[in-house]
Design goal:
Number of strands of chain A: 7
Strand content of chain A: over 45%
Shape of chain A: globular
CATH architecture of chain A: 2-Layer Sandwich
Number of helices of chain A: 3
CATH class of the largest domain in chain B: Alpha Beta
Distance between the termini of chain B: 44 Å
Helix content of chain A: 25-40%
Helix content of chain B: 25-40%
Strand content of chain B: 15-25%
Largest sheet of chain B: 5 strands, antiparallel
Order of helices and strands of chain B: EHEHEEEHHHHHHEEHEEEEEEHHH
CATH topology of chain A: Alpha-D-Glucose-1,6-Bisphosphate, Chain A, domain 4
Number of domains of chain A: 1
Largest interface: A-B, 21 and 21 residues
Strand order of the largest sheet of chain A: 1-7-6-5-4-3-2
Radius of gyration of chain A: 15 Å
Distance between the termini of chain A: 38 Å
Number of strands of chain B: 13
Structural class of chain A: alpha+beta
Largest sheet of chain A: 7 strands, antiparallel
Strand order of the largest sheet of chain B: 4-5-10-6-7
Oligomer: heterodimer
Number of helices of chain B: 12
CATH superfamily of chain A: START domain
Chain lengths: 148, 293
């Protein structure tokens, strides 16, 4: 399934780019992220514990940042699996100047398999959107915390 | 299908249940009527390590009208609510909605409070809770608190209830005297979850115009939705076609339905607007008759 949207940040693209490449900020903003360890250039291993409904469980996986074009865009390749099932994500993130700030356009191609896929597309889509929304809200908070 | 292995506890008091929940926290699930949890266990969509079965806490099986509320204990089955004369007399919209929950066999076991904290946004009970601006009373290690519906529902199947908290009661404020009501839903088969459901509550003035109108929708996003702008449009209006068309548009704007194999998002959006109009007309009809049947 495709999850798309855009979020506005109150800082220029250079600063937002920095934020979206800061592993500590990313770890704090990712819902349920317990660990995010650097294992190579632009390559991380993550442990995420998701507490939401039927997809509740601990997922382990890798995150790779690809096709970097600072400060304009990058792609995230995320692979994770846990007892509820597995998830593969190919996410494109674009950082566009908007006024004095930055509009982040995202398009996430999410594939889910295993038992968790049985909860159905409506729920997975909804929960996915909600988790991504929480992530961006917390990234905005990270930016504000940093500015103050 | 059989559930994965779990440990089973059957406390006989709220304190005991809360203690079990504080000990096992995220690993535990509360079992009440089991009409959602047991299928999820059998399909292995839910894999709790611990089940806390509250069916032996007899003090939670009650319905009471008190302080302007209908208080529904955590073990009150849907069927108990459906059959209660005080529900028919004081909160008829709840009685109508509860008849749409599953089938008799499901309503005999399933609980109203369980359905609400399970937080399926297609379910009827959360929508009625939102319509009446109700709340859920929970008990945790640090005491009792009431969570208003606006703060309760986060997204699909997800609430702000803590892992160590037990929902002990649902509190539905009684609708104003003379209010008209309606509950309508579109589902593939009777007893299925709603593709879209709409609950309406209307009070009318002497001239037959709307004094206050409320709408609540299920099946149109991650939580029940009160379309505030649509409600505001209705104040002081007669329910003419152009008013209802504007209301339908405002309803469609307020929701974010998802597509699935049962219906597309566009279909759900369309139906939501149509049902809102029908429900408002039916509610107004009852309001003119003084809120009776």
């Amino acid at each position: 399934m495709q999850i798309q949207g855009s979020v506005t940040f109150d800082a220029p693209p250079e600063r937002v780019w920095e934020l979206f490449n800061d592993p500590e900020a990313l770890r704090r903003a990712t819902p349920g992220c317990e660990r995010l360890d650097k294992v190579g250039e632009d390559r991380y291993e993550a442990v995420m514990s998701v507490g939401v409904a039927a997809i509740k469980g601990t997922y382990k996986g890798t995150i790779e940042i690809r096709d970097k074009e600072p400060p304009h865009r990058y792609r995230l390749a995320i692979e994770g699996s846990g007892s509820p099932g597995f998830v593969n994500i190919d996410a494109s993130m674009e950082f566009v100047p908007a006024g004095g700030g930055t509009q982040v356009n995202y398009s996430w191609d999410v594939q889910v398999g295993g038992p968790v896929a049985g909860v159905g597309q409506r729920v997975l889509g909804g929960v996915g959107r909600w988790l991504i929304g929480e992530f961006f809200k917390k990234m905005q908070a990270e930016l504000r915390a940093d500015a103050s | 299908m059989k559930p994965p292995r779990f440990r089973y506890f059957a406390p006989t008091s709220v304190d005991e249940a809360v203690e079990l929940l504080s000990t096992h926290a995220d690993a535990a699930k509360v079992l009440a009527g089991g009409q959602s949890l047991v299928p999820m266990l059998n399909l292995r969509l839910a894999r709790p390590e611990v089940l806390v079965d509250i069916n032996r806490i007899e003090s939670l099986s009650y319905l009471r009208v008190e302080d302007g509320h209908l208080a529904v204990g955590a073990l009150a089955r849907h069927r108990m609510v459906e059959k209660a004369p005080e529900v028919a007399a004081r909160v008829p919209v709840l009685q109508e909605a509860v008849r749409h929950v599953g089938h008799v066999q499901i309503r005999n076991r399933g609980t109203v409070t369980g359905s609400i904290v399970h937080a399926d946004p297609s379910a009827e009970m959360p929508a009625v809770l939102a319509l009446l601006d109700g709340s859920v009373r929970v008990v945790g290690p640090s005491g009792t608190r009431d969570i208003p519906w606006q703060e309760l529902f986060l997204t699909y199947f997800t609430t702000t209830l803590g892992p160590d908290e037990l929902a002990v009661e649902t509190r539905f404020p009684l609708p104003p005297a003379g209010a008209g009501w309606s509950f309508m839903e579109v589902a593939r088969r009777h007893g299925d979850f709603a593709l879209v459901a709409v609950a309406a509550l209307v009070t009318a003035d002497e001239t037959g115009r709307v004094k206050e109108a409320r709408l609540s929708l299920a099946g149109v996003g991650g939580t029940p939705v009160r379309p505030e702008r649509a409600e505001a449009l209705l104040a002081g209006q007669a329910l003419e076609d152009d008013v209802l068309a504007a209301v339908a548009d405002a309803v469609r704007e307020a929701i974010e339905p998802e597509s699935d194999i049962h219906a597309s998002a566009e279909y759900r959006r369309h139906v939501a607007g149509v049902l809102a109009g029908r429900a408002l007309r039916a509610a107004m009809e009852r309001a003119r008759r003084g809120g009776e049947g």
